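Checklist before submission:
- one chain only
- standard amino acids only
- sequence pasted in full

Submission:
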Amino acid sequence: MNEIEIFLYLNRGLVGHLIGWQTRSAYSHAAIRVKGILYQSKEGKGVFSRKELDVEDSLAEIYKIEVTPKQLVVLEEFLQQQVGKKYDYTMVFRFLTRQQESRKTSNKWFCSELVFASCMKAGVILLRNTESWEVSPSLLSRSVLLKD
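Returned file contents:
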C-alpha cells in the first residue's frame, strides 16, 4: 500500500475566515500531496503544484490515507491534468450564500473540491453520497479514512 496526504489549513485571510465562519469550522483550505508533490487550488493562483513545503504548510494538520498502487497512478495523472485550471470563485461564493448548485465537469476548482474529486476519480471514497462541489475543508475532515 501507498500513502497520500491531505493537508487541512486553519482559517487565514479574509476568504479563509469567511469560509470558516460559514462552514462553522477552523479549516478554510485543503491540499493533497501525492508522491511528494503538493497540489492545491488557491484564490489568485488557481491549481498549481510544488515539491517544496513552506511555513504555511507546516501549520496545516496533515492526514494520511492508504491507497493502492493503481489508485496512486490515477490520482497523480488526474491532478497533473488539473494544473493550470482557474480557481472557482463562483462555487466558493456558494458556501457563503448556501446556494445549491450541481455540475458534472469543471474547468475551475476550489481547494477541497479538487482534493475530493481527485480521490473520487481514483476510487478513494472519502464521503458517501457526496458530490465534490459540496465539500468544504471542514467536511473533508470528517472522513473516516483520514488518519493522523
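Reviewer check: The chain has one domain: 2-140.
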